[in-house]
Design brief:
The complex is a heterodimer.
Chain A (H helix, E strand, L loop, with lengths): L22 E14 L2 E14 L3 E5 L6 H6 L9 E10 L2 E2 L6 H5 L6 E4 L3 H4 L6 H13 L3 H14 L5 H4 L9 H13 L5 E5 L7 H18 L2 E6 L2 H7 L2 E6 L2 E7 H6 L4 H8 L49 E4 L2 E3 L15 H9 L11
Parallel strand pairs in A: 3-8, 3-9, 6-7, 7-8
Antiparallel strand pairs in A: 1-2, 1-4, 4-5, 9-10, 10-12, 11-12
Chain B lengths: L7 E14 L2 E14 L3 E5 L6 H8 L7 E6 L2 E2 L6 H10 E4 L13 H10 L7 H14 L16 H13 L5 E5 L7 H18 L2 E6 L2 H7 L2 E6 L2 E7 H6 L4 H9 L5 H5 L19 E4 L5 E4 L1 H14 L1
Parallel strand pairs in B: 3-8, 3-9, 6-7, 7-8
Antiparallel strand pairs in B: 1-2, 1-4, 4-5, 9-10, 10-12, 11-12
The chains are: A alpha/beta, B alpha/beta.
Chain lengths: 370, 315
């Protein structure tokens, strides 16, 4: 009953995005290393990820889990001391892992794959007007100039919800609030109509009410312009709001991936369980929250077995010895944990996870476990 | 929880905090009134720039109060006060800060960081007594005593926040002001720190003023919540009451925007946007009124009538 083989999806999963054919970006067995003070750190330890046309994928993980590093390798923005050690990133028939020259990257970065950064304070140049920073994109990637470029800038500002764009494009970043600045950053990122938009913690620096507006804006733009979105975030509330599919990262690996419903209501990896259970929303007042003890592993060291095992109170003996493979739970849902092996003992997830499963009602996702 | 028979530890009366700017005085806090009872966790929630941190800093006497007063155990602690009272405030009201990366002295060892406050309150202690207190404080927050000889950069964010908590605890405070104590921490570490705060509170009978912008965390940890917008309190109630019957449109907007870790709920969620223009305060001016059972709201007469109607129909 706990077989890792192909199992049928027993529910009507209307957001199933699997059936969309070939992925737009396909990363395979990526290993990324950094050289730091004479030592080598393995930030990404063999991660594979597919991104399908038109979907919204959220990559979830703690700081240091490698979620930013992995996506930065898609746009050639790894820090100077980092390199892709092995693996491939296929995009439009090319292997991005092999691109070396800045000229090659310019045809992709900002044009085909674009990025929105966390902090709108630092992403914009404080010495240039908002308009000129957006205009730059049109001039560089679309060869526009003069009135046409002006017009495009104003239209773009209008599109991202900046009032009175005719006046405001002449203003500087400091004259904009945090939320408005993030709208400008988004305008710059989508100005050249990218195929993929990567949003790295786009709302972490913002207030909740503004966060909701920015998420709605990105969704609306995605609908109108038809790009594919990747969110990088540690906020599971944001993930639930935006994601079609979710990939959970831990210590440089993807430990679980599935549709949003599968990952939230039917998670299988102990790390996903721990993440979901430790949310205050899951807590009962007056009782202690479920908490993960310890800290993530040091990536300078070689990690044997399941990287999460030392923090997992119910880890199996094999978890410390051998790294678990990806087990398939449904065509869309995979997790790397020995708990899914047919020989593994039955281990109950924490109560909060059982509560999430109960939300599914009678309909169960994936295999018939439990 | 009836306020009548509980001891008021801290009381803010018409508190105003202003800052001088090029264009005159900026009023960061405008006439704020609330009381914190001994032993409770009081949440102060607002967006950035709402004045919540200014209130916390005014209580520990970092910010000057421009008018109104702060009463601590019935005594006025704002404005000029006696040296004895000042020492008592310094010792018994402690703060935990948001960013553990920025709030610890990088060049001092944990030993000094944790016990620095003890040097400032004029109690003579031998070196052995001081070390014993440091060890006790570190153990209380789940750190090892041998960490005392290390520097802050050797610790992770969660551990550093524990050092920040130990530094507050060593003073044996009665009121702890925690200003966004977990927002800079990773998800898996947040739960550890929240649990630690709850455990310490139970063991020591502490009172917390919990300042935050994240309503989901505040809901879990607080007994009562005050919502602040642009320097004014707009609503105050017991936590669950506030979530069940939010009256002020700003509170409603805040609650509606909380992201839930539940994709199906998120998909059907409607976020309401607060428009200050929805109030017509030109003639009928608002005041801070108790609508029953310690549920306060900022409203004028016509709004109040509407709120009361809503409350009775939903009750």
């Amino acid at each position: 009953m706990r077989s890792p083989t192909r199992q049928t999806l027993a529910t009507t999963c209307k957001d199933n995005v699997m059936a969309q054919g070939d992925p737009i970006i396909q990363a395979k067995d990526i290993i990324i290393k950094f050289s730091l003070r004479g030592r080598t750190l393995t930030a990404i330890r063999g991660a594979s990820l597919e991104l399908y046309e038109g979907e919204t994928l959220a990559i979830v993980g703690e700081s240091g889990s490698g979620k930013s590093v992995l996506t930065k390798s898609f746009i050639g923005m790894l820090d100077q001391n980092g390199w892709i050690d092995s693996g491939t990133v296929s995009f439009e028939g090319r292997d991005l892992a092999r691109l070396r020259s800045e000229r090659d990257w310019l045809a992709i970065r900002g044009k085909k794959i674009s990025m929105v950064f966390q902090d709108p304070m630092t992403a914009l140049n404080p010495l240039k007007t908002i308009g000129s920073q957006i205009r730059e994109v049109f001039e560089l990637h679309h060869g526009m100039s003069g009135k046409t470029a002006d017009h495009a800038v104003i239209e773009m500002l209008e599109r991202v919800g900046i009032d009175n764009p005719h006046e405001r494009h002449r203003q500087y970043p400091h004259e904009f609030s945090g939320g408005m600045r993030q709208r400008v950053v988004i305008a710059i990122a989508v100005a050249c109509k990218p195929r993929v938009l990567i949003c790295d913690e786009p709302t972490t620096a913002l207030d909740v009410t503004i966060q909701a507006q920015i998420l709605a804006l990105i969704k609306a733009l995605q609908r109108d312009l038809g790009f594919t979105t990747v969110y990088i975030t540690h906020d599971l509330g944001v993930v639930a709001n935006v994601a079609d599919r979710v990939a959970v990262m831990y210590a440089g690996q993807i430990v679980e991936t599935g549709t949003a419903e599968e990952v939230f209501y039917d998670s299988r990896h102990p790390y996903t369980w721990a993440l979901l259970s430790s949310l205050p929303q899951q807590g009962i007042k007056g009782q202690l929250l479920y908490s993960i003890s310890g800290t993530p592993p040091n990536l300078f060291n070689t990690i044997t077995g399941d990287a999460f095992a030392p923090r997992n109170p119910k880890a199996l003996r094999i978890d410390f010895v051998r790294q678990p493979p990806m087990f398939e739970i449904s065509p869309t849902h995979r997790a790397a944990t020995w708990l899914l092996d047919s020989r593994a003992p039955a281990i109950d997830p924490p109560p909060a996870i059982l509560g999430m499963r109960a939300k599914l009602g009678g309909a169960k996702l994936g295999g018939g476990v439990l | 929880m009836n306020g009548a028979e509980r001891e008021v530890l801290l009381e803010l009366r018409d508190l105003e905090v202003g800052f001088k700017t090029k264009h005159g005085i900026f009023r960061a806090v405008k006439g704020v009134n609330f009381s914190i009872y001994r032993g409770e966790t009081f949440g102060l929630v607002g967006e950035s720039g709402s004045g919540k941190t200014s209130i916390g800093r005014a209580i520990v006497r970092i910010n000057d109060v421009s008018s109104g007063s702060i009463l601590y155990k019935g005594r006025k602690i704002s404005g000029p006060i006696s040296r004895d009272l000042d020492l008592e405030v310094v010792r018994t009201i402690q703060m935990i800060f948001q960013d553990p990366m920025a709030s610890l002295n990088e060049r001092a060892k944990v030993d000094y960081i944790v016990s620095e406050g003890l040097y400032n309150i004029g109690v003579k202690r031998t070196e052995a007594e001081r070390l014993a207190l440091v060890e006790k404080a570190l153990l209380e927050v789940g750190l090892l005593p041998e960490f005392a000889s290390r520097f802050p950069h050797e610790f992770s964010g969660g551990q550093r926040q524990r050092i920040g908590i130990a530094r507050a605890l060593i003073m044996e405070p009665e009121l702890v002001i925690a200003d966004e104590p977990i927002s800079a921490l990773d998800v898996s570490i947040r739960a550890q720190v929240l649990n630690l705060l709850a455990t310490i509170q139970k063991a020591k009978g502490l009172t917390y003023l919990f300042i935050a912008h994240d309503l989901s965390v505040v809901r879990f940890i607080t007994d009562r919540i005050a919502v602040i917008n642009k320097g004014e309190l707009v609503e105050l109630a017991e936590t669950e009451e506030l979530f069940r019957h939010p009256l002020h449109p700003y509170t409603r907007a805040l609650i509606s925007a909380i992201p839930q870790p539940d994709p199906r709920a998120e998909r059907i969620k409607v976020v309401t946007v607060y428009d200050p223009a929805c109030h017509d305060y030109a003639v009928d001016t608002p005041s801070w009124v108790d609508v029953g059972a310690g549920h306060f709201v900022l409203a004028n007469a016509s709004e109040l009538a509407r709120y009361k109607e809503e409350m009775s129909s939903s009750a």
